UniProtKB/TrEMBL annotation:
Domain Histidine kinase: 294-504
Gene of this entry: pilS
Catalytic reactions on record: ATP + protein L-histidine = ADP + protein N-phospho-L-histidine
Gene Ontology molecular functions: kinase activity
Signal peptide: none
Higher taxonomy: Bacteria, Pseudomonadati, Pseudomonadota, Gammaproteobacteria, Oceanospirillales
Keywords in alphabetical order: Kinase, Membrane, Phosphoprotein, Transferase, Transmembrane, Transmembrane helix
E.C. designation(s): 2.7.13.3
The protein's name in its UniProt record: histidine kinase
């Protein structure tokens, strides 16, 4: 049979037993001192009893001191053997088994079998049985049938108690092991669950009935600058499901879930609408890609034939001006339809964002140089304001496409308003350690108030030659990179602001 109760678990029991043993020794000395006639104890050999009781007090005091310093199994077992011998000697000095010490001798047997391995526990019972046999019979030469039978019964009781104690302690040890394993597994699962909750992209806030935060994950802590122990803001606790909360340039939906507990706790689930829209957009783009791929070929082939026929018709000799004009209209609108198809295909086949950190100042300088080469635009009228240490987390190809679209639109309207004095500008401001704003501005005519609401809708355009998909494509690409774009307006021209993630120094 294995160890009944390990020392680690039995240390408290052993400490309590050491104090019990010292209290018992002192009680015996006090009773012996009060009992001057040796009626209660020490009736046979009072001098021997006084010596043994004094030794018992000294041994118990030393045992208490040792146990309080360290729990030593060998020292504890040695003391149990010594205590059994001292108590047996005091029983002999008091008159034998009938003196009342027999019950006190059982307790060390129980302790030994609780704390020591099987054989060692039984050895204490055997040691006690031998000590009783020696003091009751061998030392006195009394081998009467009645006394011998009593001694045999007492020895059998000692071994029976040792067996029952070890059986009980074995079951206790198994239950403790099971409880320990369950507690360890529960702590492990709790850590895994807590880590999973901490790293969720959505926010999770656990609150008490008095609206104090019990737990908050990284996302919610970042959005609202809260931590455990702080009170929940009123706008969060009372937010309605259809209501959006703006925090850190994000639109957040808060859902309250009541937890079925006596304490009245509740959960607040905070979802990032921008991220959800980005995921929906990916699904939408995939569906649109399958649709456009199937019809692009069917549309483009007859469209190419129609455009080619219009070109041939316009090149015919002696063509009438009215026919020439109609052929030009056919060709121009065919080209427009072709651009619409190209933009839709570009949108539907857009690759998934491959966000990576890069230095924004270097990127913008290179973009300005490329933009000048392709548009023959004077770079001196294209101002870039950006600090050298801003690192953006974005798909570089997507950002290039967004800026190209915005700058082309801005340059076109700026030239209409100012001719050769058309100006463009890109200004970058790091708003927080984790976000930056990129403002693209021009000195054109701006956007009319009645057009702002539909600015980012598909096919919304004021240009006869435009497709109306440019700004819509910019918004979709921003959402795919967990960024936002908005029209900020301006007293001179137009301003579009992109709010994107950047990498702080601690995150590099």
């Amino acid at each position: 049979m294995t160890t009944a109760i390990t020392l680690g678990r039995g240390s408290r029991l052993l400490t309590l037993y050491s104090y019990y043993s010292l209290f018992l020794a002192l009680a015996i000395v006090v009773v012996d001192g009060v009992d001057k006639q040796n009626i209660i104890i020490a009736g046979k050999l009072p001098d021997l009893f006084l010596i043994l009781s004094s030794l018992y007090v000294f041994a118990a005091a030393v045992f208490v001191a040792l146990i309080n310093r360290s729990t030593d199994s060998q020292g504890a077992t040695t003391y149990l053997f010594l205590e059994t011998a001292l108590l047996t000697g005091m029983m002999f000095a008091s008159g034998g088994l009938t003196a009342g010490f027999s019950s006190l001798l059982i307790i060390p047997v129980i302790m030994a079998n609780l704390l020591a391995p099987g054989v060692l526990g039984y050895s204490v019972a055997a040691w006690l049985s031998l000590a009783v046999i020696y003091t009751e019979h061998i030392s006195t030469g009394d081998f009467g049938i009645g006394d011998t039978a009593n001694t045999g019964v007492y020895g059998s009781i000692c071994f029976a108690i040792a067996w029952l104690t070890q059986l009980l302690s074995y079951r206790i040890n198994a239950a403790l092991n099971l409880a320990s394993d369950s507690a360890r597994q529960a702590r492990r699962l709790q850590k895994l669950s807590q880590q999973a909750l901490m790293k969720l992209p959505d926010g999770v806030i656990a609150c008490s009935v008095d609206r104090n935060i019990l737990f908050i994950n990284d996302a919610a802590s970042h959005w609202f600058k809260l931590k455990a122990g702080m009170p929940v803001p009123q706008k969060l606790a009372n937010a309605k499901p259809e209501e959006l909360i703006h925090a850190r340039h994000k639109q957040l939906a808060v859902k309250r879930i009541e937890v079925d507990t006596d304490e009245g706790d509740f959960l607040l689930l905070v979802e990032d609408e921008d991220r959800m829209l980005a995921e929906v957009q990916q699904v939408k783009l995939a569906s649109l890609g399958r649709l456009t791929a199937s019809i692009a070929h069917e549309i483009r082939n007859p469209l190419s034939s129609l455009q080619q026929a219009a070109q041939l018709l316009s090149e015919t000799k002696d063509i009438q001006p009215e026919v020439q004009q109609l052929a030009g209209m056919i060709e121009n609108n065919s080209q427009r339809i072709n651009r619409i198809i190209a933009d839709i295909l570009q949108l539907s086949r857009g690759k998934r964002p491959q966000s990576k950190p890069f230095n924004l100042k270097s990127f913008l300088e290179e973009f300005r140089a490329q933009f000048q080469r392709f548009t023959d635009y004077d770079i001196r009228q294209f101002e870039i304001t950006c600090s050298d240490d801003i690192t953006l987390s974005f798909d570089p190809d997507h950002l290039n496409q967004i800026l190209t679209n915005l700058c082309q639109n801005g340059l076109r309207y700026a030239k209409k308003a100012n001719g050769t004095d058309a100006q463009l500008g890109i200004r970058v401001i790091q708003e927080t350690p984790d976000t930056a704003s990129i403002t693209v501005s021009d000195n054109g005519l701006g956007v009319a108030d009645n057009q702002i609401a539909r600015l980012f809708e598909p096919f919304s355009t004021t240009e006869h030659s435009g497709t109306g998909l440019g700004l819509y494509l910019c918004r979709e690409l921003c959402q795919g990179n967990q960024a936002t774009i908005e029209y900020a307006g301006s007293s001179q021209g137009a301003q579009f602001v992109i709010h994107a993630k950047c990498v702080s120094e601690s995150g590099k």
